[in-house]
Protein 1
Amino acid sequence: MQTFEIKEDFLLDGKPIKLISGAIHYFRMTPEQWEDSLYNLKALGANTVETYIPWNLHEPTEGVYDFEGLKNIEHFVTLAQKIGLFVILRPSAYICAEWEFGGLPAWLLKEKGLRLRSTDPRFMNKVQNYFSVLIPKLVPLQITHGGPVIMMQVENEYGSYGMEKEYLRQTKQLMEKFGVDVPLFTSDGAWDEVLDAGTLIEEDVFVAGNFGSHSKENAEVMRKFMARHGKKWPIMCMEYWDGWFNRWGEPIIKRDGQDLAKEVKDMLEVGSLNLYMFHGGTNFGFYNGCSARGTLDLPQVTSYDYDALLTEAGEPTEKYYHVQKAIKEVCPDVWQAEPRTKKMIDLGQYPVTNSVSLFSIKDQIMKPQETVYPLSMEEAGEGYGYLLYSVELKNYHRENKLKIIEASDRVQVYVDGELEAVQYQEDIGEELVVNGTSDKETIELDVLVENLGRVNYGFKLNGPTQSKGIRGGIMQDIHFHQGYKQYALALSEEQLHAIDYNAEKNPSQPSFYQIEFELADIADTFIDCSQYGKGVVLVNGVNLGRYWSIGPIRSLYCPKAFLKKGKNEVVIFETEGREIKELVFSEKALTD
């Protein structure tokens, strides 16, 4: 059995080892992709793989756990060992990772006033419940038990959020209570304020840094910080940013491969590194994160390509070969090889088979919750996707003043089935003037609220906009209306099966489009969304994620594993009143 220690060097079986690692998030790709991705990391010259573990994915409903399919962390780690890689795990309650709510489950928001990432007993009790299930699965995978896991993270970039050392201490104690005995670490930015706030160096928890340039300068900051605390630990960048994530409506961010290779070489000369990301993958479903800039919440795109060394689909990039060469120059004895490649295929185009308006089938696919005052998205359902509020207002046969108070994130207002307004967080609350149908005594008001993704980093983590749906209410004239029907639309398998395509269609309303087709062969591909407005695409029941006409990404990656030889079904939920006529595949990603 091998040993791993952290002294003045990382020591494997008592001998110094330089950790050359890359980040691969098992949950951002299909299990069928894991082996090629891990092999390509090994072929790069790496000896370690790193991954986060997202709490919200594994405990989607409080007390209900899921470790199947792409959530099977044990299988991923075992496969890494088989390929010859060590593993660094980051199972902290919070992960950031440009992932919905930074990995925190939406159901935490049902507890009013709960303080996240703190010693709030309610929060720590829920962390303990989660760790009591997760950590025992990881214990046998540790190097101390014959597995490949050499380190685990206590918390992620806590110094960029808080400074409550007792919270870090309690988290560490929980991990140890449930059997973690490999070295523990924290990772923070490379400057004194966050290192002081976010580390447990006084309790011998290893300190790693996160940065993506100025390698030697940042390494020196880390070295001096550790020296002030009497430590001579090795330097490691736990997140060496080789690219960046993207947001809707903004240009794609790219990083020059030769520039990255030079910086990687500098970093390896002074320490160890983990390339973040090696293979980015995809934010399937509703799991994309959201940035916060001032008063604005800026949702991130479905693709987590990250301009990484492998593309979203797993293809080696030019950047891969530049970094591979740089590693060899600093570490001439590493094993390297040609990476595996794959071919993306255009699978053709197929006409829409059926379509139906959401409004005509809402009572068939969902049981409404009727309340006096509106429910939030977390109260009404799982907290992801959409929530439709249906309200009956009195028609005063003149201009009716309406306001939607405290809602997140995107609101579409329909009056008697016609789109009246679209509001975003920055203008929700502005007055609307609506006219009902002249010969009716009531106004049918439908308000579709979309959760665009919860903030995953920064000061808004505990903010009110993390709770989605309508928190305040709907005002008619100057009073709050009472009486709501709420339809939680998470696009579950049950909801999809309940769609009646024989009901009324109305392309001007939020609608479902069904495409049924047969495939003689299957392959990795992309779905062309360039003619669509906004919505999501589901392939054989699997939610590929969101598309949006504002770009910069105009396609959705569809792994081979989601398709079938023979009959396939694609369902598109389109919210913008654009009538969809066909499904078009592409052999490449479409971007601005």
Protein 2
Amino acid sequence: MLSAVSLSALTLAATSVLTAPATAAPLTAVPIEPGECAALVKTDFTHVQEAPTRLYTAKVVPANGKTEAYCHVTGYVAPQVGFDLKLPMTGWNERILGIGCGGLCGNTELFYDVLPRWKAPLERGYVTFGTDLGHRGADSQDGLWAANNLSAQVDFFFRATHVTTIAARAITEHFYKKPIRYAYFWGDSTGGRQAMMEVQKYPTDYDGVVALCPASNPIDSVQLTFYSVTLSKAFTDYANNASKIKLLAGAVMKQCDGLDGLKDGVIQNPLACHVDLAPLQCAAGQSGGNCLTPGEVTAVQAVYRGPQNGKGQIIAGGLQPGSEADWIGRYLTVDGSESFYYAFMRDFWRYTAFHDPEPDFEPSQLDYDRDVARLDWQQAMHSATNPDLRRFRDHGGKILMLQGWGDTSVIPDGTVDYYTMATRTMGGPKPTQDFFRLFMLPGVGHCDHGGLTGADVLDGVDDLQVMEAWREQGKAPASLTAYRLKKYEGVSSFWPQTAPPDPANVAFSRPLYPYPQVARYKGGDVNAASSFRATEPAK
């Protein structure tokens, strides 16, 4: 399915290695009176072109710790796109930041308001905003809102992010009485898809986007369903499922860990890992958690391969070696209950996948010929996989994409495949890397930390600062440094950070290079990023 970009064809321009925070953006002292915040509610934004807007509330939130006072605005863009906007009362840096949501979204609070990582951009003077993507949901797995509601689906898939951006621009410039210098977007998973949808459909909305593990293709739902059903049907020895998966993960690590020249518990390039399951298969009469039954071996092989249609053709790729520790909970359980993704996919297939709702559909009923073909109607709305990025490039835009190799929610080879196609379309590695770079994170899962074995906390250089330095100063990221921590309390993985990691809490560090380069051990301290070099990936 994938064709790697040859490193021999890759000639990077002279670029800066970013291992320290970029120069802070200049702050503009703008004296804003509290009454000016409250007055926003009385301001008529209903004539904003493409985004007729009305505000619900506008109130000052007092300074608290590092965060200065800000004007907290809520409102909607007609007919139903809710949004949440925060405007610093002092020290606006003349930049705005759109923030993506996750899953099926449905509110602004879950992914925008309550997570502490989003204090960092606000502390640095950013206007920040997020949207519910055009509907309210019970949680991020609730898909009932989409039933017979084409308007809401249009909002969810692409319109809501665009019109919220227009509204945020209008409110911001009215509030500060001066123009915006730079506009950025940051999102992971569904938010990553929002970022790439903006780049492809509305290429002048943003100057740069950070897209983490982007859920850009509806075919992901076929994969998640396939993994859930395949594994749950085979692994029915619930009491031993955890030990079986631990056994599998250990065997995979033993076979593939040293491919980068160092056995360190991290598989650098899973595409070069070809797992032999024969040693794990139970002998006649053997059972329990110390081996895999023939049916379990077949299921694991199918999951590594990916779903197939009735003709034996692979529809999409599989889970990568090294991701096994994340299968429990997401695809398998230890008590016979439904896995996370089986339940999640139920609402997707019932209410959003097909043109007409099918409220009794079960993921286990998925037909890999008929039902996959029925997803085609969604491609125009859902898919953010257009590799023609010329308009965004010509606008001066930059794309920073990060993806964990161990991701079990957004399958890594789909991200790699998209980047490969974009590279071909945009004229090759050099022209593409001038504005679009993908960094793959070995041993890292779905936009999170701690569950797998890799280094996933950036070196005090959050990805937004990397984007600022690239777009505003021309300092393209030739490499990034990531850390594996001993304890993760209060740390949000490779999300925006407020400070570098505490050296006493660092287990090891590793360099990250633009795809397709991978890190290979060259000698020295095995825990130091400086002991690795960029190399062409093994096949």
Protein 3
Amino acid sequence: MTWSSALKDTARAGLTIERTPLEPKLALRSACGVALVIGVLLAVATPALAVSSAFGAFAAGLATFQRSWRPRPVLALGVAAGLGISTFLGYLAAFNHIVFVVLLTVWTLLAGMAWAVGPVSGLVATQTVAVMLVTVTLPTSVWGAVHHAALIVVGGLVQALLIVLFPIRPWGLQRDALADALAAEADYARRLRHDPMAPFDPHPLIEARAAAELTPRQARNRPRQLGGPRGIAERLRPVLAALADPVVGAPAEGPERDRVRDLLGATAVVLDAVARAIRWGKPVKLPPEAMAVLRVPESGPMLTGPARRSAYRLMALLGDAVDQTDEPGRGTRRAPAQEPRHLLRPTVPRLVPVVLRALHREARWSSPVGRHAVRVSAVASVGYVLGTALPLGHGYWAPMASVMVMRPDFAQTYTRGVARFAGTVIGVLIGAALAALLHPGVYVCAALAVVCVGLGYLLTGTGYIVVSACIGAYVIFLLGMVGEGWSQTVQARVALTLLGGLLAMAGYALLPIWETSRLRDRLAEWLSANGRYALAVLDVHARPAERNQRRVREALLDQRAARVAWEEAAERALKEPVRHRGISRTAERAADSALATMGRVTMLMEAHLPDREAQPSPAAGQFARALQQALPDAVTAVRERRALDWSLPRQALAEWHAREGDEGVAVRGSELLVDALDELAAALSPGPGGRNRAARRGA
């Protein structure tokens, strides 16, 4: 993609306003927190102190709208602590521009590295930089620093207290994540009715697993509806695929295929009912027609072989899903010895070593997060110096705009830059027009500021341009509370926001890290994860008495994470203004299809793992050893743009055929696995011949 096309696409994305479900109760609660802080401080103190504390309340409220599985009060308290520390340090260094620039550079570097922990941590750290920049215009005594830092912390504490006193749909995010996973399984079942090879998006299952990670305190209070259906959803996917697949399931046409279609349709209905029950904490309501289909028929078409086993497994799993969900959601307190097992989420104190490991892992020049940290710290420092040198006043607006805009990847940075400038212009103009017409006093300005904050909270999911417009008007009214007229701030705000956005975009252009050049590494990681998953499944078929279900499960999770990392990298690469380096779009699509097929075939073999009492299969073990020998060299070949060699697995498969024939799920799955590996080799074969073969296979 050329630079002109990339800029056009990012500008269009930045100006897009999406229609998303609104959460008025949450927005009202957070806006009330800001109103409470401003109102109390206006009554007992000065407008300047009210404005200072309003920053803490606003930032804490904004952080609680981010998608995080941590309890909302914990997020608000974390933001309050970070804002208090950054405010105090900013006050201490504000007496000298050079000292402050040094502090700003170091603090922004650390804030940029916070993206290594996660997007919510990165956003919170960005908020602390913004508040530090604001404090340079306020008194610099040590006592004043403590005073203002405490007020900002109070703003966050108020938001946390409101969340505790007025809970709105507790466990709502976790409920939505689990319901989305079950709804995705229902949609998958519907698509399998018409297309037995329909793809499945693993993102909902990944989100559901992340939502299921709990601290011990959360585990004691989790509603029972959230305890078991996630594991059932995980086990349902391979069963559905195995039932619909014409190779290891029912024939492609005939009475058995009609029976499979009926089962898949009824499964979708049941899963949708379970998803609705979990989402809203209500009992499951099942239509009797669907339940009739999910019983073993006394007459009519009957399934045989592997399809019959898959159907029985499907009925059992659906029964478990209904049984574990069919009750109103409520807290369940058990004695520690009776607590169910759950995915462990570290408590806040135990997060320290996790954070340190993440920072150490990303503290390198080749890391997107590490490069982002250096880039944002340099841009913030330059922006502060330029903003201070310009005769516009409020010079901190330029670096603040840069910091709020910049992200570790190209598309988000440029999209947010356009949205920030356009939204700021709109918000400042609206705020200035209202100020010019109403000539509001201190309390009217405070009320209008709270209204802008409430609209920002309410519309936070519609697009960054809308949020920027609300923030722009919010700043106009906040400054109006301390006596600054709108005419003094409009031009400066617009000009400095434009300067900050341009600096952010220039910073990424000068210090980029393109995802396009890393695509082969991501592809190699996906191939490696696919291979480990296949080896774990084949090992169970080879030695059923020694089956290690945990190894299979961990390999599946690694494979799923590698696939998502590849898909996200490929999506970001599409938006980058660089020519392809190492892999063409045609080869990329063909390789994606081959590895997706490899993962699906392995999943089908996992759906038919033998019991511990089953006979071992030496041929499956021999095939697994051949694949294990060929895999490391193939992964290296993908990175180094060499031809892939799968002769060892192909030879082992031929010997398997000669020894045991072509009956059985394992041998059929291994045939499809080798076919997928050959497709991958053709897609990545160097030279025009390989690309042409990939194009033909992709067509």
